[in-house]
Amino acid sequence: MAEIQRDVPIKLAQVGSLVVMKIVKHCSSSFPTTATGSLVGMDSNGVLEITNAFPFPTVDVSNTDGHQNDASTLAAAAPRAKANIVYQNDMIRHLKEVNVDANNVGWYTSATMGNFVNLSFIENQYHYQRDNGKTVALVHDVSRSSQGSLSLRAFKLSTDFMAAYKEGKFTTEILQKSKLTFKDIIVEVPVVVHNSHLLTSYLHQLPALPDNPELELPTSLDDIRRDPAKIPAHPSFDALDLSIDPFLEKTCDLLLESIEAHYTDLNNHQYYQRQLTREQFKITQWQTKRKAENAARVAAKQQPLPEDDWHGLFKLPQEPSRLEGMLNARQVEQYSKQVDGFTATVTSKMFAVRGNLLPE
Amino acid sequence: MAVDQEHFVHLSRPLAPTVLGFGASSAPLTVNIQPQAVFSILDHAIRRDIRDTQSTRVIGALVGIRSEDGSEVEVRSCFAIPHTENEDQVEVDVEYQKNMLALTLKASPRETLLGWYTTSHELNSFSALIQNFFASPDTGTFPHPAVHLTISTEAGTSIETKTYISAPVAVNAERAAESCLFIEVPHKLHFTDAERAALGSVAAAQDTETRAAPIVSDIEGLTQSLETVTGLLERVGGYVSEVLDEERDGNHALGQYLMNALSLTPKVASTAIEHDFNNHIQDVLMVSYLANSIRTQIDLAQRLATAPLVAGEKEAGDKKDGEEGAGGQDGGRGGRRGGRGGRGRGGGGRSGGNREPREPRENAD
């Protein structure tokens, strides 16, 4: 089918400030369980504009039974659930009546300290990106945003990975052929926050730094206390807070979990290889026995038996998929990049504090 | 941080007819508004249909939670309702409101309908009509009063919000449906910590030409904050030195305040400071080193898992096992296991088809 406009890949995600506020409110109110929702907007010329968002309905945990009784798992799987697809279409139809953009351009999720790279994330994004290549997943990191600057990132799956995921098999030979590494699974898209004119004028009304050089001096201490100077929203002074241990503890916990996941994966592969070895050994034994039998039969002038019969008798074990291992590796890379960023800011703050308390 | 609250003297709240003994208090009603509701309303105001309706205002419903005794109300979100308004009549799509309310409540089950909003400060009989609709028993907020929020969105004037509740009052019985008395109630814009960070990023765009600002990384955000603080400190320092040089008159209140603030620096022994500082720096650097070494190890494991080797992938798997056996241990033992893996590979390379059983290799202890 001929495309009227050239298929330009997305280079930038422009997020409306309304979307930012809605996502932040939803994710922080349902912390620490994961929160998911849908995004609507428009894409034009390589820039994906996201103009509105709405959360997916939450299911009360007490009502569900069975193995999937974790609110986080339910919420993480929400974008794919059939009931929620209906909900999404309903919402988009209603929003269209009030002139909101009616295209679904992706979904959002919340994360704590960057732990969003898991199978659920990939499946959700695949579900959206399968039909329409111009969808992104927005990830809002709640715990890192509370330390200062907002953490909102946009991701999509790379085309190589999409093709490989469609096949559904991630065995060693396929990976060797396609040269797919864990680094190529998700691609980050830069995010820009955009305001409308009305909103900009509203923002100018909120407290800002005084810009005139002369201010009226207060007459008493009570005056200052009653009417304190208003702190502007930007730049945020929360970033100057020095809190080290909680971040380090949480990071170490998450790293330990990833190491365990890695070793589980490793053990699975070793088990598979041991099984494979044993089966191969049995097959070769059987084949030598067959050869000996055939030699005897030829000597006795009888028909030799076929040597390929082992297919029906022995079954080679399936190689476990390497996808989980690759996702785990990507997750660890994410953690280490986070720690690097944290180290940079914290060491500068610590040296500043030390320089003040111990003047040389 | 709160937007300035005007000072109110609230004598008593007008009561709509309620069920006797419901326990409705006549305490004044305060309305807390979350910023995302305001942003949503402003966004809706921009997207309004300017073709056929004469009125330039839009309406929508407010959703949120109400405290137990009904005296505190928090507006958490809102949605728009299509409506048309002419000089003599107004139409509101009630079906739409019901459906949209059901959808919104599915996503946030603990919230309820609180009232409605409009984007002009004018209060006319249409407002009264809609207000009575929203306060009515079956589709509205009965027996609690419906909150009416108005935001002025005209170009050139500042954007102000006002909140009202209503009491029924009418000239005569026939016109009861379209008249009511609007009483203003105090309201506050309420920011939580999480939203402050978001607001920071949003406000970063307010001074640029394109009204767009990229989301900055942590260290860039820190740089901007530090620059601002340095600027502020220079300003205060400049003032203090001018006072000391007697170029300016000092101000008692300011001097007292500065002294109180500066006396908050802790007086700790310098050895204790050095000690704590070293400990913390070591913690941070250790975790950073650990994270990076884990990353390198796993990166290596992944590469070896899929690396093409001469004798096939099984040897690659074994070599990877050998290397991974060293994961978490010190390098010396890793070298020995790597050697064992290497020798195993040499053994398997003899014949591709004839695979020998490997002795069970114990895992990293």
Report on this model:
The complex is a heterodimer of chains A (360) and B (365). Chain A has 360 residues and is of the alpha/beta class. Chain A contains 12 helices and 8 strands. Chain A folds into 2 domains: 7-197, Cytidine Deaminase, domain 2 (3-Layer(aba) Sandwich); 246-357. In chain A, helix 10 runs antiparallel to helix 12. Chain B is of the alpha/beta class. Chain B has helices spanning 35-46, 94-107, 125-135, 193-203, 218-244, 252-262, 270-305, 313-325, 331-348, and strands at residues 30-33, 59-66, 72-81, 83-85, 90-92, 112-118, 147-151, 161-167, 181-185, 187-189, 212-214. An 8-stranded mixed β-sheet of chain B has the order 9-8-7-6-2-3-1-10. In chain B, strands 4-5 form a two-stranded antiparallel sheet. In chain B, strand 2 (59-66) and strand 3 (72-81) form a beta hairpin. The longest helix of chain B is centred in the C-terminal third of the chain and has 36 residues, at 270-305. The chains are: A alpha/beta (360), B alpha/beta (365). Chain B: InterPro entries: eIF3f, EIF3F/CSN6-like_C, JAMM/MPN+_dom, MPN. Chain B: It is found in: Cytoplasm.
Secondary-structure blueprint of this entry?
The complex is a heterodimer of chains A (360) and B (365).
Chain A: E1 12-16, H1 17-29, E2 36-44, E3 47-55, H2 71-77, H3 82-97, E4 103-111, H4 119-131, E5 136-141, H5 142-145, E6 152-157, H6 159-167, H7 172-178, E7 186-189, E8 191-194, H8 197-205, H9 221-226, H10 245-299, H11 310-313, H12 323-357
Parallel strand pairs in A: 1-3, 1-8, 4-5
Antiparallel strand pairs in A: 2-3, 2-4, 5-6, 6-7
Helix pairs in contact in A: 10-12
Chain B: E1 30-33, H1 35-46, E2 59-66, E3 72-81, E4 83-85, E5 90-92, H2 94-107, E6 112-118, H3 125-135, E7 147-151, E8 161-167, E9 181-185, E10 187-189, H4 193-203, E11 212-214, H5 218-244, H6 252-262, H7 270-305, H8 313-325, H9 331-348
Parallel strand pairs in B: 1-3, 1-10, 6-7
Antiparallel strand pairs in B: 2-3, 2-6, 4-5, 7-8, 8-9
Helix pairs in contact in B: 7-8, 8-9
